[in-house]
Amino acid sequence: MDGLFPQLSMLGSSLVLIASFLLLWRRGIPAYVDAFTLQSLALGATTALVGYFTGNRELYLVAALLIGIKGVGIPVLLRRMANRFGSGREVPPYVNIATSLLVGGLLVLLAYIVMRPVVQLSQLPTRAGMPLAMGVVFVSLFVIISRKHALTQVIGFLMLENGIALLAVLGTYGIPLIVEIGVFLDVMMGFLVMQIFVYQIHETFQSLDVEQLNRLRR
Amino acid sequence: MSEPALFLILLGAPLVVALLAAAGPAAPRPVAVLTGLLALGSLGVALRLAARVVAGSVPTWGPGELFRVDALSAVLVVCVAFVSALALGLGPGGGHESPREVRRFRIFASLFAFTMLVAVTTNNVAVMWVAIEATTITSALLVPLHVSRASVEASWKYILIGSVGIALAFVGTVLAYFDFVTVAGPQESALHWTILMAAAPALHPPAMQLAFVFLLVGYGTKAGLAPMHTWLPDAHAEAPAALSAMMSGVLLAVALYAIVRWKAVVNLAVDGPLPDGLLTGLGLLSVAIAALSLLGQRHYKRLLAYSSIEHTGLMCVGLALGPLGVFAAMLHLINHTAAKSMMFLLSGRIRERYGTADIRHVSGLLRTMPVTGGLFAAGTLALVGLPPFGIFLSKLAMLRAGFATGHAWLMAAVLGLLAVAFVAFVGHLNRMLYGAPPDGVATGETGRWALVPLAACALALVWLGLVLPAPVETLLDRIVEITTR
Fold it and tell me: Which of B23, B326, B366, B406 could connect to B373 by a Cys-Cys bridge, CB 3.0–4.6 Å?
């Protein structure tokens, strides 16, 4: 962990992970949107940083897309939905704050355990952040599973995607550009379709509490 | 016809159908005819591509051979084009949809077909991922064709669980690419399957094992493997019949295709028992959960959906049983595609007539709709694996593969579960076929022409149960060759 590049990339990855912990710690959709915005900006900055130190110009484009779409565009849409659907207060989740944070910590530990043999294979100066990226993936999965609000689940999904993007940029200095663009298209389309469904759920159930979505058991 | 032309027609026809449907609500008749012709054209081209592969060539297209059709792709291309033509021709449901619904169905069903065709023809595993993710988006929009509480709920579960699953498959793809980069350095074409296969023996087992876990869980979610299957019965039951046919008949097969592609790479890199063990475990769990869920089922579309989970599980078990197992699993895939797409389309006709999907309210099917009922009975018997239908042969081959590779206990468990599924399925079928029809249900078939292609499916199943056609055998042999090197 000597040198500026490893330290800065570790700092960026830590910020991305901390942002997903904000989702466990705070309550209310506006707070979650803030956390997601912070995470996307940290991810964009980390991507640009890797681009700067490795001289890979394509990564600047990816960073710009990340900041533009996930740091600005999607948060605007999320806020608009949060305003439209009332106070932004959330039904109590299945797991309380203290337990959530504890589970989050254990998940990061798990991420270190599963990634240890993989990280050892790499010589890249950015490799130390890879377990943190996997931690973001695990924590986001936990958020999706343990929350009852449709919008919170969407934000959890978006954070999961951020975790994968971080893993790709730290482990491989970015996947080929054509793939990256395809992934961006999918994320945007997927988000827009989820948005349509959120509106539909609200219209049919007068609520975004997915607990009510249990008509189809068996 | 030249190869670029074949690819262009194959992939372009569904896009033209989508554009036509979007642009041409003013002239419903010509649009319907053109839609049918284009879907058939796509199928014809798919068959020609498959014929070239049988003859020994491997058609490629695009910059850096982005598209490539080997034997494995060829089988899937024909399956996807066939079911898409069937669904676009007969869809969306029983025939009483509003023109707006028909238009929406044509737009998204053809885009759905396009994304599946890209997924199975591209040589690049990341582009394959992008295409499979896009299948979720295009098909989820069609699940609530009629907006109701149930269909909105089903579509939310589908898009959320499907997207999360597919995201996990991307984690696996990134991990595999990471390992490739540590071995060979960054390359634009590194995610080409052919290049991955060439580099596979040098890849590191720890990274590839972890990658495979993510890939199997991710694509397994789309394929309906337990315990990630919870979205499937809801989505398949609530979707319009023709979409269910596409989702169950080929979308599951496309997800399984992704697993087969990756397993071939992982097999070369990893020597241990983990990949096969995982496949067997999840496969067996799926068969078990499906068989038990079939028993108390009251909804015939959910019955078919659980049967899809059962068959996917069975194919996964087969994939772990060596070359003969792979052969049997792929043969099973072809049979299942024909059987399940026919059954879902028939279920649309039944629902249209009886106005319910509840088995308890459907009786006397053979009296009200003799041909539909007869085909439904044939399809059920095919699905539970009775001769003379193709699934009997593929199940038999799978059992032989299991015993030959020393998995006697596993096969005994599978056989036991299949017996449970058999009893459950045939019991439900009896209740639907016989007895007095409920009051107010009309007698006699309507829309007879639609029965012709469905009967052709049943005939194809019988044909595949009596002989193994030489071209099919060639394709399957070649799949075994390229995936179990």
Answer: B366
